Amino acid sequence: MTRVVGLISGTSVDGIDAAFVEIAGSESDLTVELLAGATYPYPEKLRSQILNLCAGGSISMAEFALLDDAIARQFAQAAQAIQKHHPPAATLIGSHGQTVYHRPPAPRPPAPLHLDAPWHVSTNTPLGYSLQLGRGEVIAHATGIKTVSNFRVADITVGGQGAPLVSKIDACLLSSPTQHRCIQNIGGIGNVTYLPPCQGNWLDLVSGWDTGPGNTLLDLAVQHFTQGSQSYDQDGNWARQGTVCQPLLNQWLSHDFFQQPPPKSTGRELFGWDYLHQCIAKSQAYSLSPADLLATLTELTVASIEDSYRHFLPKMPDQIFLCGGGSRNLYLKERLQSRLQSVDIQKTDQAGVSGDFKEAIAFAVLAYWRDLGICGNLPPVTGAKQAVLLGNIAPC
Ligand SMILES: Nc1ncnc2c1ncn2[C@@H]1O[C@H](COP(=O)(O)OP(=O)(O)OP(=O)(O)O)[C@@H](O)[C@H]1O
Ligand SMILES: CC(=O)N[C@H]1[C@@H]2OC[C@@H](O2)[C@@H](O)[C@@H]1O[C@H](C)C(=O)O
After folding, report:
1. Binding of ATP: at which residues (predicted)?
2. 117-175 pLDDT, tens per residue?
3. Which of 18, 83, 139, 393 is most buried (CB neighbours < 10 A)?
4. Ligand 2 pocket check: which of 50, 99, 390 to mutate, most ligand atoms within 8 Å of Cβ?
5. Separation of CA 62 and ligand 1 centre (Å)
């Protein structure tokens, strides 16, 4: 048994999810017991600095370094707080950190590199770029616990998207011998892991990808309509009062990201303020109320999930297990169920894994695997050329 703390702040940038877990086994015999889970909100000033950077704001390198370490200190505090009433202490921390920029690999090879050209025309590379702040060295130093961080770069180095990384953990913890399952996260961004029945060479058949916006556009629209006094549409109650504008939804769904086959990943760079402003501009032609726009944005999340299943899965699932904050949006859940009437939709909690802390648990497992020398990525999911060890180890 190894006691591990898993930490992540996701694309909603609402705070740090921490999971204190006890892990045993390796892959097919992996077991994880959740001892404690909690979310520690960021101080408001830190959150707005992060959101500003994610939205393309400029800061100096000195400010950048301070921000990196301010985030790391918040993560270290979360790692200490989550263990407080549950001795003995963890011997390992897996920290995803805070994504501030994500650029998937180029869909096709870039033009050949001209070594005699000036540097600014010779920088294009087929590799993706993904940056998470909150360096593990500071977390290890502050807590005295060995910390694994920077999980995405190794997958990117071998040509992968660097995301989604949760799929192998989903496969080990949530597969069924008889059912075709989808594990659907609806966080700021949505992602899915498809799990065929776990028999024979099933692990080779697991697939997954980012489905597109989860809550980001909804949250930004609510902030826009309330001048910042509300941050999300609780239970989907506002959207429920509106009517979906089908022609507008069809326009939005024609976006390249939704047509692109997996492997694929995305973030606030694509589905952020600029995209929302374009959505609002296109909606002017239909004279929509705020409720109508929210209903249509909710439908975008739901329809993009359904369409991606219909286009990219070998078979529609028997069951969907939801996780992430969007699984609390009752209206969104009802819309998904009404589009997928024959599918049994539940939360991952009903299959034994907390939907609120699944991502934090996943980074605890990835750190544990890194420590044991077990690869963490699934190449068919991320598009990597091979399975690799994920994460850099900072000793304490
Ligand atoms: N009761 C609720 N009703 C509607 N939406 C909710 C509710 N509770 C949470 N949410 C939504 O969930 C979001 C947070 O989800 P979550 O914490 O899973 O995101 P994240 O982990 O930051 O994202 P990602 O998985 O993309 O990294 C909130 O911003 C809000 O939009
Ligand atoms: C770059 C980045 O942080 N991507 C996140 C984001 O949030 C949801 C979706 O987009 C997901 O693919 C990924 O995180 C999860 C934890 C993953 O890698 O599996």
Report:
1. 10-17
2. 554 444 578 899 999 999 999 999 999 999 999 999 999 999 999 999 999 999 999 99
3. 139
4. 99
5. 31
- Tell me if 266 is assigned to a ligand binding site: no
| Closest ligand (CA of 170) | 2
pLDDT at 41 over 50: yes
Specify the pLDDT at position 302: 98
CATH topology of domain 2-162+355-394: Nucleotidyltransferase; domain 5 (3.30.420)
Distance 341 CA to ligand 2 centre (A): 28
Output the CA 323–ligand 1 centroid distance in Å.
9
Token output for 125 = 């590379």
CATH assignment of 167-351, among 3.40.30.110, 3.30.9.10, 2.30.130.10, 3.30.420.40: 3.30.420.40
As given in the structure block, the two tokens for residue 246 are: 């089908």
Determine if residue 242 is labeled as part of a ligand binding site. no
Overall pTM > 0.90: yes
Q: Please check the confidence at residue 280 and state whether its pLDDT lies above 60.
A: yes
Structure tokens at 124: 């294009």
Could you identify the atom of ligand 2 that is nearest to the CA of residue 167? 19
| Residue 235, phi then psi, degrees to nearest 5 | 60, 5
Q: Which atom of ligand 2 is nearest to the CA of 324?
A: 8
Q: Where in the chain is the domain with CATH 3.30.420.40?
A: 2-162+355-394, 167-351
| Atom nearest to 12 CA in ligand 1 | 22
| Ligand 1 centroid, distance to 325 Cα (angstroms) | 3
Sign of CA dihedral 311, 352, 13, 90: negative
Instruction: Quote the distance between the C-alpha of residue 135 and its chain's center.
Output: 19
> Which of 62-76, 117-131, 177-191, 333-347 bottoms out in mean pLDDT, i.e. has the lowest?
117-131
d(CA 189, CA 270) in angstroms, rounded, equals 10
The model's pLDDT over 346-365, given as tens digits with 9 standing for 90+, comes to 999 999 999 999 999 999 99
Q: What is the pLDDT of residue 119?
A: 47
